[in-house]
# Entry
Amino acid sequence: MRNIKLVLQYDGTNFCGYELQPGKRSVRGEIEKALHKLFKIKTRIIGVSRTDSGVHAIAQVVNFKTTNQIPTKRIPAALNSCLKDDIRILGAEEKGKEFNSRYAAKSKEYEYLIFNGAIIPPSVRRVAWHIKYKLDLAAMKEAAKILVGKHDFSSFCASRSDDKNFVKRIYKLSIKKRKLAVFSGEKIDLVSVRVKGDGFLYKMVRNMVGTLMEVGLGNKITSDIKNILYGRNRRLAGRTAPSHGLCLIKVHY
Amino acid sequence: MRNIKLVLQYDGTNFCGYELQPGKRSVRGEIEKALHKLFKIKTRIIGVSRTDSGVHAIAQVVNFKTTNQIPTKRIPAALNSCLKDDIRILGAEEKGKEFNSRYAAKSKEYEYLIFNGAIIPPSVRRVAWHIKYKLDLAAMKEAAKILVGKHDFSSFCASRSDDKNFVKRIYKLSIKKRKLAVFSGEKIDLVSVRVKGDGFLYKMVRNMVGTLMEVGLGNKITSDIKNILYGRNRRLAGRTAPSHGLCLIKVHY
# Structure
């Protein structure tokens, strides 16, 4: 039995998310369909991040087992020919039989983009949250420091979660301005929230971003973030940031 | 009668183009509908570039006449509230009564993006032409020089055009590599073709890019470009590059 690791990208806009959902178009469903077409037998994949509907990925990692003898380097092109252009397999690698994309991951990195201004350019509408009122980035950076480290993140976990261990370690949580240029003439100022951690609870990044946004808008202050974190109660945190601003950007093994 | 100039952006993917077409969603149609909603009377707009279906714009310019007394600075937000998010009015300005967005333009600039590699990232699939075989950029740059200057561009004009004057002046035609970063972790290498001219025939930029691409692929050489240009016959030129790689980036008045 061969164990194949794939790295893939997708624009999350037209997916119900990573996980299978009856009657809906999921990332996992599309890849498993492509594998079925290629190998003629049902093949199950394991993904490192079960991204929600609308969430993007530039480096999702999955693995699957197969007895098929197709050369590894031919797998990306073969699968891509069976997939729509909003999802692309970038690379394939044969791993040892013990490799599991989810459990082998040491840490994951996400980026959340915010457009902070009056009129959001159409070119970033699918990748950035539009916040019209001016954000206090210094206050957000200060508040973000509270969340770095090993904590019980219950307050940032969505209620329908099946998570059991709420203690996670956040290695890095940076907030900075960056420019995005889709076309030459267009330099768009965005706010980028990057977070790296050893694991994430259901909707944790979006709940963290939504809460930090409240700080940026002056509705909450740094000590509120402490109370929210230590209160270990989802009802204490701010709103959930919308999914389309989020992207899985790296998985470290 | 007030004469208002608007600058606007759009993602061309879901438009039939700038011009009205029966039963289809056009840029002009959407803006005229929004103006009708706002002013309660039919208002006609004049646009500087009649972009085709799929072509994007980050600085399309239109103007319209109205007796309505809404403050100019309130116009963008008022119109945007009536428009879908793939089109945004960025600014409005009151001009003298003689101003005509089309005839007052001194020059226009377009950018055409190409992704030159095996697997195109989903994030650029709507803004870049995917060319798998390696392009010879040096040969393309050399050939591009032939097209700069004042010429009869009949060979690059699509046949169903109603253009009458085929002589246009190309001020600049540059071909260079550039990086595009949609998400932090993702730096995508693209080829950018930028062209600035005092006017363009129907599908002229796309025909120029399609022909230069043939040079990049080794199917044509620089002397062929001379023969095409001087032959003044559309059948001589290469294919028409697809619309989604093209963007109107600047209009000079």
Summary: The first strand of chain A starts at residue 2 and ends at 10.
